[in-house]
Amino acid sequence: MAPIAAVRGTHDILPAQAHAWEWLHRTHERVAGGFGYRPVETPVLEHTELFERGVGAGTDVVDKEMYTFTDAGGRSLTLRPEGTAGVVRAVMAAHLLDATRPLRLRYAGPMFRRERPQKGRHRQFHQLGIECLGDPAPHLDVEVIEVGVRFLEAVGLHGVSIQVNSLGDRDDRARFRAALVAHYTPLRDRLCEDCRRRLAVNPLRLLDCKRDADLAEGAPRLADLLGAASERHFAEVLAGLEDAGIASTRNHRLVRGLDYYCHTTFELWHTSLRGAQNALAGGGRYDGLAEELGFPGTPGVGYAIGMERLLSLLAEEGAGPASLPAAAAVVCSLAPAQGLAAAACARGLRAAGVATVLDAADRKLGAKLRAAASLGARWAVLVGEVEVATGAVALKDLATQEQETVPAGRLAARLRGGVEDAAG
Ligand code: HAM
Question: Cα(138) to centroid of ligand 1, in Å?
């Protein structure tokens, strides 16, 4: 029988990466938490309609990439392809804005898109995100971008460029859509198959097609069609970014792949991410989303960062956290007869706050010491016949290979001292 493999486009976070993974979560928590963003969790499973109406029929995400199925009750359900629509639904349904406005939330979790798997593109991937709801003020667009930038600084990533654009309001986009259709319709026969479809259903997306990039030359620019209010909003965002010392690049072709955006959109790019995977993070304002979902109109702005892309960049740059030992000490019984004594010794160490692994296996001491070293432990505590008889243990420093005898009652203090010395 063939062994069962992981589903294509999914991956395991094995212990070697899991430490960095948890560290990313903690760092995001600390940085976003420092701006007042509180945690929220929403279900992975949502009604398909949430994304059809929120993200938009006509987007690649909704039309081609969702994992959608009909459950036994005949309901169409979808594994969430992104987190924003679910957060807005949750906030609006629970009337959270009645008490706090703006409401600052952060989240982390898996998202699912049936894309062609390749480096930096998975079918189950993970995002760290924030959403700021209930206030249309441009300084909050700046804040959201700043949280992302400060987070990437905190994890030690260099070489990030901030691409920004404005999609204006609904009227601006309607004018822009008409201008794009007028530009592209005569070029229809030269468009790729996807873009011919986009011309009919989602003309804005024509601008970020990689294959038809040459046809975008000379295309109308939304910047030239923005109304006065949209211009003012965007000018305030740019001024706010400058004031925060955040350098950004205006990218007229940045339209983003989800339909809910208006006004500010942005992406954080990294020089070593290429092609379709160049965005490490994306976000923007979505003042019309709540209404699309059937709730009262409520402004919002947020971002999501791809954890897999970020981790692989950090690994390439040699950044990231130092690896952590699984435990400070491994207590080894020298023979099965000392198994219980070794277990009691390990229990005592843990109770005294020393992370301890018990190795009571019936195998040679050499194998136990190699296993202890592979866990990154500093100490091996050897419990043999003599030790049990004398009430002492043999303590081996795995870094220096020095060994000493320590009375059992003084062991925890000795190890804690060692751990503290090592922490320096
Ligand atoms: P998005 O641009 O679709 O935005 O995704 C954000 C980030 O998720 C991307 O920049 C990328 O790092 C990561 N990502 C997306 N698809 C994949 C994939 N197939 N494999 C690996 N990583 C991927 C959103 O999802 C919006 N909800 C962001 C947002 C929040 N806008 C406002 N608030």
Answer: 22
pLDDT at 411 over 90: yes
The whole-angstrom separation of Cα 303 and Cα 108 is 11
Two tokens at 176? 């822009």
Place of tokens 């029988």: 1
Closest atom of ligand 1 relative to the 83 alpha carbon: 27
pLDDT tens for 31-85 read: 999 999 999 999 999 999 999 999 998 888 999 999 999 999 999 999 999 999 9
In the reported structure, the alpha carbon of residue 411 is separated from the centroid of ligand 1 by a whole-number distance in angstroms of 50
Render the burial of 272-281: b for 16+ CB within 10 Å, e for the rest.
ebeeebbbbb
Query: What's the confidence (pLDDT) of residue 422?
Result: 47
Helix residue spans in 156-288 (DSSP H): 170-184, 193-201, 213-216, 228-243
Residue 338 structure tokens: 């000392």
Question: Which atom of ligand 1 lies closest to the CA of 268?
Answer: 10
- 247 token code pair: 């350098």
User: What pTM, to 2 d.p., does this model score?
Assistant: 0.92
Of the candidates 223, 230, 181, the residue with the CA atom closest to the CA atom of residue 205: 181
- How far apart CA 282 and CA 405 sit, in angstroms, is 58
Say how many Å lie between the CA of residue 62 and the centre of ligand 1.
14
Ligand 1 is surrounded, with C-beta below 6 A, by: 82-84, 113, 115, 120-122, 125, 127, 129, 131, 257-258, 279-284, 286, 302-304, 306, 308-309
* Cα 172 to Cα 58, 95, 139, 212, distances in angstroms: 19, 30, 21, 24
Q: 38-39 and 103-112 as β-strands: parallel, antiparallel, unpaired? A: parallel
Relative to the CA of 85, which ligand 1 atom is closest? 27
Q: Three-state DSSP class for 395?
A: strand
Q: What is the pLDDT of residues 147-195, one digit of tens each?
A: 999 999 999 998 899 999 999 999 999 999 999 899 899 988 888 888 8
Instruction: Locate the DSSP E strands across 76-200.
Output: 76-79, 103-112, 124-133, 160-166
Q: Nearest 5°: phi and psi at 125? A: -130, 175
Task: Please state, in angstroms and as integers, the Cα–Cα distance from residue 202 to each residue in 148, 190, 211, following that order.
Answer: 28, 17, 16
Cα(378)–Cα(399) distance, rounded to whole angstroms?
Answer: 6
